[in-house]
Amino acid sequence: MSIPTLPGISAETVSTARLRTRVLFSGAPDGIPVIFAHGNLTSATFWEETMLALPAGYRGIALDQRGFGESDPGAAVDGSRGLADMSDDVLALMDSLGIERAHLVGHSMGGGVLWSLLGDAPARLLSASLIAPVSPYGFGGSKDAQGSLCAPDAAGAGGGVANPQYAQLLKDGERGDGDMTPRQVMNNFYWKPPFRSPREEDLLTSVLQTHTGERDYPGDSVASEHWPGVAPGRWGVLNGMAPNNQPDISRLYAIEDKPPLLWLRGDSDQVIADMSMFDLATFGKLGVVPGWPGDDACPPQPMIAQIKQVLDNYAAAGGAVTEVVIEDCGHTPFLEKAEATHRALFAFISG
Q1: 134, 336 contact by CB (below 8 A)
Q2: Is residue 317 part of a domain?
């Protein structure tokens, strides 16, 4: 089911050397390119309002990343590469469109794509805007600001920790408003209640376009002797965000010509947080998941502390970092608090 675009947004199917997918465009073709990478369980549709708000002289570009939206259903994420499949897709899109350098904007999982791009191809980035990004140490299974693993096999992260009921509701295309339905999760965790988007039905369709299965969402897993008894497998986006599959973040500090970075987040984010409501260790600490081994062995991942330390190290190594925190805002500032987010984002890009 194709999602109708807002006036001023055009949608094209683009085939690159790596991926055939839907790509959204705004602005003049000769404008300075700004490429948007969406988060987990969403698609390019989430970026449309921001693309339309870009200042004159910029061209907005947003792709449905592999595993999501109208991307090739046969193009799975090899999680053993982290999110490099997705960052390579962005580079292939740039090559296909004849773009040498661009501003990159990534939300949540899309922020992870930007961490990968910064390490692999920093010269292609005019700047990187990380909006509520996943930690550079991945999601789940790590326990301090340095990203140390809670268990040697990264137990507690990857495809095996997703709620199977939720995955089934995604597969079934459930549009109801019951407990733990995609609509309920979106409206309670993607943003801070009582916010509701006027495009709720289109955004929900975007969520439901997530590709499901052992090679997609949630992906595969392996048994573990460590709590909670499951460790990351190879395939799917959740394994791509597992901490054992992330590249050495210190390579960012060695970049000679460092792109400037923006870290923008909401102050009430329940997804990327030091006690995330999507981290299994949080539920262990709260007594919801039995057998939790305690804070010394497996605390909730300190996601904000990890991001802050990496960005502090990046700045200490000569990089320019701007931090913006949006008040009374959850995980998706560019929809919840669009005016404040756009003001900060566009000032950073223009600068």
Answers
A1: no
A2: yes
How confident is the prediction along the chain (351 residues), in pLDDT tens digits per residue? 789 999 999 999 999 999 999 999 999 999 999 999 999 999 999 999 999 999 999 999 999 999 999 999 999 999 999 999 999 999 999 999 999 999 999 999 999 999 999 999 999 999 999 999 999 999 999 999 999 999 999 999 999 999 999 999 999 999 999 999 999 999 999 999 999 999 999 999 999 999 999 999 999 999 999 999 999 999 999 999 999 999 999 999 999 999 999 999 999 999 999 999 999 999 999 999 999 999 999 999 999 999 999 999 999 999 999 999 999 999 999 999 999 999 999 999 998
Alpha-carbon span 322 to 301, nearest angstrom: 23
Query: Does residue 40 belong to any structural domain of this protein?
Result: yes
Q: Supply 321's token pair.
A: 């970092």
| Domain count of the fold of the chain | 1
Is 218 in a helix, a strand, or coil?
Answer: strand
- Specify whether the CB–CB gap between 321 and 263 falls below 8 A: yes
Domain residues for the domain of 71 are 10-350
C-alpha R_g of the chain: 19
**What is the pTM assigned to this prediction?**
0.98
Q: Is residue 1 part of a domain?
A: no
As a residue count, the chain comes to: 351
> DSSP assignment, residue 347?
H
156: CATH? 3.40.50.1820
Query: Residue type for 41, please?
Result: L
- The helix/strand/coil state of 142 is strand
Residue type, 252: L
Of 154, 163, 156, 225, residue with least CA distance to 189: 163
The answer to whether residue 5 is domain-embedded is no
